[in-house]
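Bumping with the actual sequence this time:
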Amino acid sequence: MVSTIFQHSEDKLKDFSETPEYKDKLLAFAKEIADTFKDNSCIIYVKEDDLKFEKDIKSVFSGEAEVKADNKIRIGGLRGFCEKLEIVADNTLDSKLDSKRASFLKNADLKIS
């Protein structure tokens, strides 16, 4: 049951990643990472389909930003890495959904009888 619920959620998030509103959310996620990295150089990882937003993503960073595809990102969002600060900032929809799954399993207190 839990797997079905979260698969449905993943499918809905993938559908969202095909909408015009997704670009705004992606850039908001990028801005959060840019605020953390300040003017330091970084690498930003996105799913292959999101490379079309490369120019927009780079525009929110004050430091140099390189945008690369990462096939581990299935749903969307982005992950940033700043070597100088030794920080990985994960704003992927994948990790957000995974954290909800972990929280759900921890707090659901489901019992099968």
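The tokens above came from a reply further down the thread. The beta strands are 42-46, 65-69, 77-82, 87-92.
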